[in-house]
Design goal:
The protein is α/β, with parallel strands linked by helices. The chain folds into two domains: 65 residues, no CATH class; 222 residues, 2-enoyl-CoA Hydratase, Chain A, domain 1. The chain contains ten helices and ten strands. An eight-stranded mixed sheet has the order 1-4-5-6-7-8-9-10, sandwiched between helices. Strands 2-3 form a two-stranded antiparallel ribbon. Helix 5 packs parallel to helix 6. The longest helix has 19 residues. Bound molecules: zinc ion. The site of zinc ion (ZN) has 8 residues, from loops. Zinc ion binds next to loops. It catalyses: N(6)-carboxybiotinyl-L-lysyl-[protein] + acetyl-CoA = N(6)-biotinyl-L-lysyl-[protein] + malonyl-CoA. Belongs to the AccD/PCCB family. Pathway: Lipid metabolism; malonyl-CoA biosynthesis; malonyl-CoA from acetyl-CoA: step 1/1. This is Acetyl-coenzyme A carboxylase carboxyl transferase subunit beta.
């Protein structure tokens, strides 16, 4: 495993001095009461402050808004316990894909992130865990070489330190601008999960809206326990592609978390307000507290 790690390090040469930087999690945002947001599901006009107080969930219909990786960490991880890995790792346009550099710059400016996943260690109700949280605000959480590498390194850290592993997934799939290198991240992350699992580690996968493509076809669905947020879209190919391929109309709840729970792909649907306690209970149960 050490050799594999070294080889990847040499190839990328972009992770140096990037480990164990302490960062502050996103502060709770204060929004004036006169700012309203229309809920995407129930169309009610609701003060934005009510969304924030309710974990960015619609207080009327329970619709879960997309949230950033930093906000999710703030909700799950104990205050001031998160240490981030590989914060400055960033993708290169190795395939010279037209427009990719500009796109990367645009998303870096918009999100304040360098890539579509935030990784590190932290505590959940005092229990130490390794955690990777994907962020759909950065190129739809697509998985390129750096996303795959950061997640793999988090898995390997958890393996080495015998820590429970949590990955919060959201993704549109593989990053097409990186060609075949993005696809091999599926095999790399899955192999790392296998080694982690062989050593008896607990891996909890959280599927959030949307978790699709290469991420759903690799580490997202490999959790020992797979949790999902209500109504999250989870699938590999999109609805239209499948409908055209099989020439049939799919049911309205197809690829939704509730449908996948019914079919046995998901173990439990957990509302955002209950996520931290659920994770805490599962980790405590695993380590035998
Ligand atoms: Zn609503």
């Amino acid at each position: 495993m050490e050799n594999l790690f070294k080889k990847r390090q040499e190839r990328l040469n972009i992770f140096q001095n990037a480990r164990k930087k302490i960062v502050h999690q996103a502060p709770k945002r204060e929004i004036p009461d006169n700012v309203f947001k229309t809920c995407d599901k129930c169309n009610d006009n609701i003060p934005y402050s009510e969304f924030i107080e309710n974990h960015y969930v619609c207080p009327r219909c329970g619709y879960h808004l997309k949230i950033s990786a930093r906000e999710r960490l703030r909700q799950i991880i104990d205050d001031n316990t998160f240490k981030e890995f590989d914060k400055d790792a960033t993708s290169k346009n190795e395939e010279n894909f037209i427009g990719y550099d500009d796109k990367l710059d645009k998303y870096k400016r918009a999100t304040g992130l360098k890539e579509a996943v935030v990784c590190g260690v932290g505590r959940i109700n005092h229990q130490k865990v390794a955690i990777a949280v994907m962020d759909s605000n950065f190129m739809m959480g697509s998985m390129g070489e750096v996303v795959g590498e950061k997640i793999t390194r988090t898995i390997e850290y958890a393996t080495k330190k015998k820590l429970p592993l949590i990955i919060s997934c959201t993704s549109g799939g593989a990053r097409m601008q990186e060609g075949i290198m993005s696809l091999m991240q599926m095999a790399k992350t899955s192999s790392a999960i296998k080694r982690f699992s062989d050593r008896g580690g607990l891996y909890i996968s959280i599927l959030t809206n949307p978790t699709t493509g290469g991420v759903s076809a690799s580490f997202a669905m490999l959790g020992d326990i797979i949790l999902a947020e209500p109504d999250a879209l989870i699938g590999f190919a999109g609805r239209r592609v499948i409908e055209k391929t099989i020439n049939e109309v799919l049911p309205p709840d197809f690829q939704r978390a509730e449908f996948l729970l019914e079919k046995g792909f998901v173990d439990q649907i957990v509302e955002r307000k209950d996520m931290k306690q659920t994770l805490s209970d599962l980790v405590a149960f695993h380590i035998g507290k």
